[in-house]
Amino acid sequence: MFLLAQVVNGLVLGGYYLLIALGLSLIFSIGGVVNLAHGAFYAFGAYVAVALTEHVGFAPAIVISPVAVALLGLLFERFILRRFYTADPILGLLVTFGLAMVAEQLLRIIFDAPPLSQDMPQSLKGAVFIGDFVFSRYRLMLLGIVVVVLIGVWLLLHKTSFGRVVRAGIQRPDMVAALGGALFAPITIVHPAMGAEVITVAFVVVVIGGLGSFWGVVLSALLVGVVRGITINFVPAAGEASMYILMFLVLMFRPRGLLGERIERFE
After folding, report:
1. What is the reported pTM?
2. Alpha-carbon gap, residue 24 to 205, rounded angstroms
3. In whole angstroms, what is the distance from residue 143 CA to residue 25 CA?
4. Terminal Cα-to-Cα distance of the chain (whole angstroms)
5. Tens of pLDDT, residues 172-206
6. Rounded to the nearest 5 degrees, what angle is found at the Cα of 77, between the Cα atoms of 73 and 82?
7. DSSP 46-108
């Protein structure tokens, strides 16, 4: 019973990783650019949501924040990222790394360095009892939103003419990362370096799943979340290391990742 509860909690953690890693993988699949600035959009999403909550409330902030960051992502793709789709990959790495540093310092200038906190609505606090299990009401809601977002992105990519032409998850993959930042702000620490921290996890997830594989990223994110969640409960000191060990083991036997047989553009 305890193990099953930890698996469910791990799936929530995996959903968090999925929202971050999916956008990163989409950008790579579309333009062949490894976007090191991707984590900055996650951080922007969290900060904008925290700032807006004070004025418009929690739910509207969760909706407005990803849309606002998506517009920023559109400008980023149009005027910066697009220039490197056919360039030497190292140039894209250097430019996006520099932009990530700039974004972090901008957050420090605008919001100051101390961490911020985000309160969730009273209606989402507390726990849900399912048989002998106790689950956080907010975390269950997050898991449901992740499922809806995943289905929505897949349908848009594969079942619409726009998606078939663009294959870019509404042309602004960073919107998904911003949504992750907005949703997880109440249960994490909002600070300027949070984007740099999460980008490492996103890379691990993408590498395990396989570059260019939509479902590989999904499987990898859930697997990493469950493995890390279970490990933290039994060997807390090894929680962080567990995902790197998992990546090592996968790459030993599957160098292209779990579902990375073909490097293609989500086709």
Report:
1. 0.82
2. 10
3. 20
4. 40
5. 556 777 888 888 888 888 888 888 888 888 889 99
6. 170
7. HHHHHHHHHHH-HHHHHHHHHHHHHHHHHHHHHHTGGGGSSS-HHHHHHHHHHHHHHHHHHHH
Amino acid identity, residue 62?
Answer: I
Please indicate, yes or no, if residue 71 is contained in any of the structural domains.
yes
For residue 34, what are the domain limits?
A: 2-253
> What one-character-per-residue DSSP string does 113-164 give?
SS-B--PPPGGG-SEEEETTEEEEHHHHHHHHHHHHHHHHHHHHHHHSHHHH
Q: What residues of the chain score a pLDDT lower than 70?
A: 1-3, 30-31, 130-133, 161-174, 261-267
CA dist., res. 239 & res. 141, Å (int): 24
Q: Is residue 266 part of a domain?
A: no
What is the radius of gyration, based on Cα positions, of the chain?
18
Q: How many domains, the chain?
A: 1
Per-residue pLDDT tens over the stretch 109-138: 998 878 888 888 888 888 877 666 677 888
- Residue 265 in any domain: the answer is no
Q: Does residue 260 lie within any of the structural domains?
A: no
